[in-house]
Amino acid sequence: MVSKTVLHNGIRVISEHIPSAYSVSIGFWVASGSRHETSEANGIAHFIEHLLFKGTPRRTALDIAREMDSMGGILNAFTSREYVCYYAKVLDKFLPQAVDLLSDIFLNSLFDPEEIEKERKVVLQEISMLEDNPDDYVHDLFSRNFWKGHSLGMPIIGNEESVGGLSREAIISYRDRTYLGGNIIIAAAGNIAHQDLLKLVEGVFSNHPSGSSSSPEEERNICKRIETYEKDLEQAHLCLGTTALPQDHPLRYEAYILNTVLGGSMSSRLFQEIRERHGLAYSVYSYMISHSDSGSLVIYAGSSPDQVGQVIEIALKELKRLKTEALTATELESAKEQIKGNILLSLESSDNRMSKLAKNEIYFGDYQPLPEIIKGFDRVTSTSLLDLCGELLDDRYFTMVLMGKVSSGSISARDLTL
Fold first, then answer.
1. In the chain, what are the domain boundaries?
2. Do 2-202 and 225-415 have matching folds?
3. How many angstroms separate the CA atoms of 154 and 222, rounded?
4. What residues contact residue 219 under an 8 Å CB cut-off, 6+ apart?
5. Element (H, E) at 103
6. Residue 318 φ/ψ, nearest 5 degrees
7. pLDDT digits over 247-275, tens only?
8. Annotation marks residue 49 as catalytic
């Protein structure tokens, strides 16, 4: 059973009782991420995520780590373009201690100047590590080019210049502007009663300020782009993408099926054609990223530089097939069952259920019951999917990024045609 309470300052407390579980996963979510930053302060949300583990008046950084370890639990955090999450997973008997620990770092972190400088070095190393991993870095480069001039194109972890220039005052100011009651969601799933969760958090957050922040109003400059980044690598890394749907779009079920058929698994068209049939890549897949107001559908492949042209040709051929040929009943049904199976299997984990509660609240403002989600996929037809492909797979919007031993101008915009 899912329960929701809104505190007087706008903080939303949502829980799902799973009586058969031994664990509880709890997350403190802030509906504000890298897209809410300025270019000068890019990476500040991610930097704050790091700093909240560096000590409070009651606990040092070592105390925080030791306390969670003594419970046999997990304590971590992550930042995205539209939210930040601090979460813990513990045995149900340790939930009060976990809430006390999370609340302490969330509300009372010191932002000690010495710790800020040490952690700045850590984040700068993280940026360097990303740039040293081309199969990860190419996705970051794709986002920068696809969302060129838009806040969604800024890297979540920032860049060397922006992170290097963040002052303690700027960090605390950003935290105070975004960690407001209307932006905060406390989500928990596992062997927990909603009223017990409320007792744990109401007093702690009773004086927390209300208010909220909103995403900037921006338009993307939609046009065809090709960018090459010459680098001495054994492989050429490719990202080819186009527009996709926002999280709450009525045709989102069709979009998930589109991605599944295209490159979402080992039985997908891209995997079977590019890897299994032609042996052109070890890693090839597609993925879809949906935001509150927009999205992208992206194909990735890593291939030898002299074969990347064939990879692009096959990818374009498969995109055209989706746009012009209806799926067979067998292929459509298989994709539906694959997605539904993945969803059901993910719900065996309390942390996945906790994340589902929070993301539903961020993007839909309410809980999305599993039977309604299943019905959404069941309603998809080959005709509705073909209509969506005709809308999204428009080569006027294609962006392609190539990294490796590829020369600028080796592939032109004319080559990206369906």
1. 2-202, 225-415
2. yes
3. 16
4. 150
5. helix 95-108
6. -70, -35
7. 999 999 999 999 999 999 999 999 999 99
8. yes
- SS3 label, residue 138: helix
Q: State the Cα–Cα distance between residues 126 and 186, nearest whole angstrom.
A: 28
Tens of pLDDT, residues 348-362: 999 999 999 999 999
87 forms beta bridges with 27, 76
Residue linked to tokens 């997908």: 268
pLDDT number for residue 215: 67
Q: What are the φ and ψ backbone dihedral angles of 2, each rounded to 5 degrees?
A: -105, 130
Who contacts 221 (Cβ-Cβ below 8 Å, separation ≥6)? 148, 149, 150
Q: Which amino acid is at 351?
A: D
- List CB contacts of 164: < 8 A, sequence separation 6 or more: 120, 124
Containing 229, the helix (H) or strand (E) segment is: strand 225-230
Amino acid making up residue 232: D
Distance CA 61, CA 44 (A): 20
DSSP-assigned beta bridge partners for residue 188: 15, 26
Q: Kindly provide the residue ranges of all beta strands, DSSP E only, lying in 31-92, ordered along the sequence.
A: 74-79, 84-91
For residue 18, the one-letter residue type is I
Residues 6 or more apart in contact with residue 22 via CB below 8 angstroms: 91, 92, 191
* E strand or H helix that includes residue 399: strand 399-404
Q: Which CATH architecture has domain 225-415?
A: 2-Layer Sandwich (3.30)
Q: What is the pLDDT at residue 311?
A: 96
In which residue ranges of the chain is pLDDT below 70?
215-216, 408-410, 412-414
Please tell me the distance from the alpha carbon of residue 318 to that of residue 332, in angstroms, as a whole number: 16
CA distance 35 to 20: 39
Q: What tokens appear for 12 in the block? A: 């939303």
Beta-sheet pairing, 225-230 with 295-303: unpaired
Centroid of chain to Cα 373 = 20
Q: What is the CA 361 to chain-centroid distance, rounded?
A: 15
Spot the catalytic one: 16, 49, 115, 273.
Answer: 49
Residue range 2-202, CATH number: 3.30.830.10
Q: What is the pTM of this model?
A: 0.95
Q: How many CA atoms lie within 13 A of 276 on its CB side?
A: 11
